[in-house]
Automatic annotation (TrEMBL):
InterPro entries in UniProt: GvpL/GvpF
Organism of origin: Streptomyces chartreusis
GO CC, one annotated term: gas vesicle
GO biological process, one term: gas vesicle organization
Similarity comment text for this entry: Belongs to the gas vesicle GvpF/GvpL family.
Taxonomic superkingdom: Bacteria
Protein name as it appears in the record: GvpL/GvpF family gas vesicle protein
Lineage: Bacteria, Bacillati, Actinomycetota, Actinomycetes, Kitasatosporales
This protein's UniProt keywords: Gas vesicle
Length: 264
């Protein structure tokens, strides 16, 4: 069976060893492939699954994609603990080591430029949600007797108007809070990226997402950044703030993590 090369990230040479039992996509351990002043972190994957046609088919399989993405991220997380990786997009595959080196040669200056900008920095994610309000314990399920119908209808409409106003107030408060928080965190971080709000149906998160942002922060300032988020979210009743990280700087790598075509 022919083995292809799956590339996780490009980084500068590093001395710290990765975990001895670390495995990547398709269960193979990652290794370092050096070219000039760069290192590509790669592992072998079977051609039967990762050649262009089967890979495209697999990317439509949610279960396969979940397992593969988890293995990919596991390697990126391990790299982030010991160095500053420039993560490549999921499914970056080449025919052999020579193909990987050719890619590194062609893009060497771009890789070096981005790695210089990211050196010693990590990404933190911050999301703000409007918490869902509990539904009314009792809603009219059937019309009352005719003599009470008008009054019942007016009461129902009044309650609905009050609920709508309350929801609008919470939404406005959350939007204003999210704007202030983003301004504060952007001033602290070196760079910031706003992503589209998450769809609750797809993400499974409760509440409505009003801020989905990423911040590039020096690793040495991460503790202070976390404390800043904690202080800010204490003043946000009815609003949930989620902080994730530290991650490799996916949101700040430009085209390297976003290309859609399978490289050869």
């Amino acid at each position: 069976m022919t083995a292809l090369r799956y590339v996780y990230a490009v980084c500068r040479p590093f001395r710290s060893a990765l975990q001895a039992q670390l495995t990547g996509v398709a269960g193979a351990p990652p290794k370092q492939l050096t070219h000039h002043g760069l290192v590509a972190v790669v592992s072998t994957v079977p051609e039967a699954d990762f050649a262009e046609a089967p890979l495209r088919a697999h990317l439509e399989d949610l279960d396969w994609l979940t397992v593969t993405a988890r293995a990919h991220q596991q390697v990126i997380d391990a790299l982030t603990a010991v160095t500053t990786p420039l993560p490549l997009r999921l499914g970056t595959v080449f025919r052999d080591d020579s193909g990987v080196r050719t890619m590194m040669e062609a893009r060497e200056q771009d890789f070096l430029r981005v790695l210089d900008r990211l050196e010693g920095r990590v990404e933190w994610g911050v999301k703000v949600y409007v918490e869902r309000e509990p539904t009314e314990a009792a809603e009219p399920t059937a019309p009352g007797p005719p003599e009470h119908a008008a009054g019942s209808g007016r009461d129902y409409l009044r309650r609905r108007r009050m609920q709508t106003r309350a929801h609008e107030d919470v939404w406005q408060r959350a939007t204003e809070f999210a704007g202030r928080l983003h301004e504060t965190l952007s001033a602290f971080g070196e760079e910031a990226r706003l992503h589209a709000p998450q769809n609750a149906t797809l993400s499974g998160a409760s509440g409505q997402n009003v801020l989905n942002a990423a911040y590039l922060v020096p690793r040495s300032d991460s503790e202070e950044f976390v404390e800043l988020v904690d202080r800010e979210k204490d003043d946000a009743p009815g609003i949930r703030v989620e902080l994730t990280g530290p991650w490799a700087a996916y949101s700040f790598t430009g085209e390297f993590a976003e290309e859609s075509e399978v490289d050869r």
